[in-house]
Write a structure and sequence with these properties.
The chain has 173 residues and is mainly α. The chain is 79% helix and 0% strand. The longest helix has 36 residues. It is globular, with a radius of gyration of 16 Å. 38% of the residues are buried.
Length: 173
């Protein structure tokens, strides 16, 4: 039997390992193929699924770490994903624990809204505000594909993290 602190430690350790593995998978050239012109943001998948199973503050911290790594992987600067994913994970963590329980269908709604907001903010900050030429071509060729793939990849992450969360919590009782 493990204490609550030991259980939480192992859950957080599992999230850290997931984040490291997904960062390596996403940033290693040639390791993950591009589908329809883009790769999914797997770190966002980890953060969103962790947010539905954890309380607000741990969800926010996991979101912040995932956001930092996502920003480094996409733009080599900390900014858009760090701030927005931190806030979104806090909100999702709060909502999943206090408002709408994060069953699978509810999680799909959380993920769809969160991924849409994240990639629209990314597009706004890096393309619309600076006035990049051919921004709509980039949007249709890369942003939409990346957002859809990220959403679809978040489905297996939901079940992986649900398994980890439930296995560690049943070890207590």
């Amino acid at each position: 039997m493990m204490s609550d602190k030991a259980t939480a430690f192992f859950r957080y350790l599992a999230y850290v390992i997931e984040l490291i593995l997904m960062f390596m998978l996403c940033t290693t050239p040639g390791l993950m193929p591009e589908l329809f012109g883009a790769k999914p943001a797997l770190l966002i998948c980890v953060a969103l699924t962790a947010a539905v199973f954890e309380r607000e503050i741990p969800a926010m911290i996991i979101g912040m770490v995932a956001g930092i790594l996502t920003d480094i992987g996409y733009s080599n600067s900390i900014g858009v994903f760090t701030i927005s994913l931190t806030i979104i994970c806090f909100i999702v963590g709060y909502a999943a624990n206090n408002l709408i329980v994060a069953k699978f269908l509810n999680y799909l709604l959380y993920a769809a809204i969160a991924v849409g907001i994240l990639f629209m903010l990314y597009f706004l900050v890096w393309f619309i505000i600076p006035g990049v030429e051919d921004m709509w071509q980039y949007f249709t060729a890369h942003i939409i594909s990346r957002a859809v793939q990220t959403f679809l990849y978040s489905i297996p992450f939901y079940f992986i993290n649900k398994f980890i969360y439930s296995r560690l919590n049943t070890e207590i009782g």
